[in-house]
Design a protein that fits this description.
Structural class: mainly alpha
Shape: elongated
Distance between the termini: 40 Å
Largest sheet: none
Number of strands: 0
Helix content: over 70%
Strand content: under 5%
């Protein structure tokens, strides 16, 4: 594929080589002359021309045809990073509802994190073990939600909408064997089942955080040990430990 952005750079390289050759091979400047009386001058001139040709050829390939080095993927460090990648798939018809739900889950997670942090600050001193226990569990559960979104993005990156539409078109049956159609359909069904699984897991996380918020809001005072016995805290801790087993 022609790299048009390199054309200007290549012209600059060629111009520089031409100027260099004119300066070196012009009579009376550096005493280098092809076909002159001294063989050393001729050899130097021919060598210069040969090297110039190699530079032009290499420059042409590098600047015009060689594919640019792929940039390393930007690490996902914030909800905005995840949302920006999800937005790329929002206009794919068969994916739109799932992508919109994933975006909504990211937004709700951020709101719940802010609300839980505020409520904890009102109920506990940030230096208390109770505060740190709640905060630690919330942070771990938030990581689980982002881990599920990362799984969704990995699946979406493998999805071929055009190929799916070819097999999903019920008006005009594709010219393939029934067995191949069934296998391909099963593959895409597995794809969407996996997406639904990630989205369902995130809904469960968001529900548990709502329950945790309710339990915290009803607390008067509680020791660190009793916090471990709270139903929602036990469920969240089990969810965290279960996920770690599969990482």
């Amino acid at each position: 594929m022609l790299n048009r952005s390199g054309s200007v750079k290549l012209l600059a390289v060629i111009a520089g080589i031409v100027i260099l050759n004119i300066a070196v091979l012009s009579p009376g400047l550096l005493d280098v002359e092809i076909g002159g009386e001294r063989a050393q001058e001729t050899a130097s001139g021919v060598t210069l021309l040969f090297i110039s040709l190699l530079v032009v050829l290499y420059g042409s390939y590098t600047l015009l045809f060689k594919a640019p080095a792929s940039k390393s993927a930007r690490p996902l460090t914030s909800p905005d990073d995840y949302a920006a990648l999800l937005q790329q798939y929002k206009n794919v018809k068969v994916l739109k509802n799932d992508v919109l739900l994933a975006l909504d889950q990211l937004e709700r997670m951020e709101k719940k994190r802010i609300t839980l942090t505020r409520v904890l600050s009102e109920r506990f001193d940030p230096l208390e073990l109770s505060y740190r226990k709640f905060s630690s569990v919330i942070a771990e559960v938030e990581k689980l939600l982002y881990l599920n979104v990362r799984g969704i993005l990995n699946k979406l990156s493998l999805f071929d909408a055009s190929e799916f539409s070819l097999f999903a078109n019920t008006r005009k049956p594709p010219p393939f064997s029934e067995k191949l159609i069934q296998q391909k359909t099963a593959l895409y069904n597995d794809f969407f089942t996996s997406l639904k699984g990630y989205l369902g897991a995130n809904e469960k996380i968001l529900l548990k955080l709502d329950q945790l918020l309710l339990e915290i809001s009803e607390l008067d005072s509680m020791s660190y040990e009793r916090i471990e016995e709270m139903p929602c805290m036990q469920e969240l801790s089990a969810l965290i430990n279960q996920t770690k087993l599969y990482q």
